[in-house]
Structures are given as C-alpha cells and as structure tokens.
Amino acid sequence: MSKHGVLEFLNSVKPPCLCVSVVLFVAEGFDRIEAARFEGRIKAEEDTDKRRKQECKSNGFGLKKHRPISETGDSFLNRFAGLLRLTPGVFPLACPQARFQPVYVEDVVRAFVGSLDNHKTFGQRYDLCGPKVYTLREIVEYVARLIGKRVCIIGLNDALSYLQAATLEFVPGKPFSLDNYRSLKVDSVCEQGFPAVFGIAPASFEEIAPGYLPK
C-alpha cells in the first residue's frame, strides 16, 4: 500500500477516534502499512485480537492494544454519555481510580507513516499514548460537563464495583460487564511521553472529544 493509500485511510477515520494506548513494533523488510491495514482502526473486539496479531506477526509487525477508546462515534464515551443522560442525579461509578491516557488515532497513524522511511525506528518498540493521564472519574466528569448534565458521581469500592459488573452484565445492552471490570483493574498508561522520533505533538483528549460527543 502506498503512502497515498495510508493518507486515504487516515482521512477515512471519521469522526475522530481515541484509543487509550498502543504499542507499536517496527521492523525492516516488509510492508508495514499493509500490516497497519489490519490493525490501524484499533478495534475493541477481543475475539479478533488473536487473528489480527497472527496476521501482523506473519508480516513482521505487531500492534498490542490496551483498552481502546475507539470506533465510530466513540462507543466508550458515548456509552457513558447515554448512561449519564438517564441518571436522575446520582451516578455510581465502578473503579473510579482506573487510569487512562487517551491518544488520538490520527497521531497513531502518523506514527505508522513516519516509520516507513525512518531507519531509526526499525526493530524498535514504541508506546504511543496521549499527553495526559486521566482517572475514569475525571473522564466521566468531563463527559457530564460536555453534555450539560449535572450529576453527583459516587465512586464505588472494589467490592461494589465487582457487584455492579456482575449485575449489569445481564442487563440488555450489557452497559458494564465483568470483562470491563477486569480491564479497569489494569491501568492503560505509558511510562514516557509520545516518542520524539516521530516528531508528533499528540492531540489532547480535550481537543478531540467535543467534536464527536453530541450534547
């Protein structure tokens, strides 16, 4: 796939998407953009992870995903927005101290593109995250402000978080599940900032989220 094809892919990601963190592996002697074609959209379905990783491995490329905030309209944030709109005034939040570091998907794709001709990146592994770490409480509070919802967010302890997940797992639409609970037990953050080798100043969460979170 040509660079032009990658840019077409980049432009096709509408509305803007976020993912929490990405690990990028770069290798020499293969079509990395073709590998990005499999992984670039940062899908969340766990049942496809094994197949995609194998496809990338066969091409000398790997991409590991950590709790993506992604997909059209951003299902993660819009799910919370929907729940907040239905909340009468008090919102019980599981795992409120879980930490995230959202990265703009276009910044991730630009890193793919930038690695094509940059031999310094060959054989390297890079953690790709946004510029700031947020707790889940901070993210939900921000979503509430964006949609103009006044609500009191009550953080649940671990036992109540588990109980909420075990209960809501059987609610139609499964707004929160035990898999979600287990994912929140592991922070999705990077130890360092966005790799300087790509020359990218990552967009902040606040710059991107208002553009696709309807009020």
Kindly describe this structure.
The chain contains 9 helices and 9 strands. It is elongated, with a radius of gyration of 18 Å. It has one domain. Residues 28-46 and 59-73 have low confidence and may be disordered. It starts with a helix and ends in a 7-residue tail after the last helix. By secondary structure, the protein is an alpha+beta fold. Helices cover 39% and strands 14% of the residues. Strands 3-2-7 form a 3-stranded antiparallel sheet, with no helix packed on it. The chain has helices at residues 3-12, 32-39, 49-58, 75-86, 105-115, 136-146, 158-168, 178-184, 205-208; strands at 18-19, 21-25, 63-66, 90-93, 99-100, 103-104, 125-129, 134-135, 152-155.
> How much of the sequence is in beta strands?
5-15%
Instruction: Calculate the mean pLDDT score and round it.
Output: 76
Number of strands: 9
Q: What is the helix tally?
A: 9
Give the ordered list of helices and strands. HEEHHEHEEEHEEHEHHH
